[in-house]
User: What shape does this take?
Amino acid sequence: MRDRRIDVFFYGLYMDASILTEAGATPENPRRAYVADFALRIGQRATLVPSRQTRAFGMLYALTQSEVERLYAAPGLDQYQPEAVLAQQLDGSIAAALCYNLREAPRADDGIVNTHCACRVSSVASNSRATMWLPLDEHNALVLDRLRTEGFASVR
Assistant: This one.
């Protein structure tokens, strides 16, 4: 019997189906989507944080529960915990999905930005035709400045 698949919303490197496949998952049913009232925050790692009247864009994939558990058992990813979200697909339909976020989001004033992570997430977003949108707060202004400094030309 085939394992049941669940929708998972990805906003970071896992937006790229090839990265999911390399990690041992078989992503199915890819859909571009966003979750409302969340914003992308990049510190040492990417996460979503509650943020009224914003949208975090990413990709929805159908995975088995065992695939999801293996993905987030990888070194460093054990800091993420699952949350239930409603993902608005770009065709207008809504899907209940899991979304993994850091237990503790980077603070806006901590000054720690992993520009390698930010560049990779932005590159994956471009390749998957998802939109990487950072609300312009103090933390994300620092992220964008560092990306521009490191020559990531598509940052606006």
